[in-house]
Amino acid sequence: MEGEDNLAGSIICACCGRAETLASDGTGESVHWLRKNEELGLGVCSFCPEWLDAWDRGNRDVRLHPDAVEKRKPGDRPSLELMIQNASLPSLSNVLLEIYDLLSSATAGADQIARLLQTDAALSARTLRLANSAYYASTREIGTIPLALTRIGPFDLWWLLFTTEVKSLFYAIDQQLMDMEKFWRHSLMVACVSRVLAEHHRCGEPQEMFVAGLLHDIGKLLLLQRIPIEYGPLLERSACGESLIELESEELGFTHAEAGGELLDRWKLPHQLVVRVRKHHQPGAPLTHENLVAAADYLTHRLDALPEQREREADPEYPVIDASEKLYRRLVNLVL
After folding, report:
1. Quick check: helix, strand or coil at residue 60?
2. Which domains occur in the chain, in start order?
3. Which has more pLDDT, 64 or 217?
4. Is 81 a residue whose pLDDT tops 70?
């Protein structure tokens, strides 16, 4: 079993809350660990073998602050602040964040973006794979970052790389709790509708709205990763018709929209992006920069209830629906 040796620091069982705190000289209370992650300060102790399968699937039920030694009492709500602090998710590449800043600058050039990409071997390799994928296929193979940028386009390349990075952070979510393919299909559709709405109504920057739409539900992934035991049942009840936002507010004290906003803020993404994700369950009229993603999410859900083409054509937003679906069909294979 991994993690059987005692190391200095504090480890807490993610299931029962037993804690091990060892001083640097090896003294202190010792616990036998079946699994443990020192960076997270979490593990599975020998008293909780039934939790091994969930741990190995990537679930981390963070019920405690890493410095706590007492089990959270039944009925206590999880803390969003502590979840964000203790999530210990891999940091997004600084290169991606710097490129996003460049894309927001009127003076940025493709050569600057290419130089940044070339400082990150993994991103460079992914860029070349994308440029030579079937979607961008041509008789000429791309072998350099500048040519890849020319073929794909700086912004499209950024969101493709960013999406790949985000998906890798949440790869181990239990498929029984969340159908990840369905999740990303919905996220991409909301992104497409956001972009088309912004274009049609001249409300906000379409590319920025696309990114906000793509990330609008990222809070669900954070909650499934950090508190699957608490959050899974809420999703099940929501699937049976209950309001997820109301369930989250009542049971957790915060919503997935607020959790997503906090996570993006931690990643130091632009404030307006954070706001749009936080408010994506607050649609209203007239259309504004802040509630556009909420309107896109609402329209996307409405599309699911309009299976017949004639019903779609009768919808007042049909031009937006039609353009969004065409954009979605072009992009879906790249995201999935």
Report:
1. coil
2. 9-76 (no CATH), 89-168 (no CATH), 170-336 (1.10.3210.10)
3. 217
4. yes
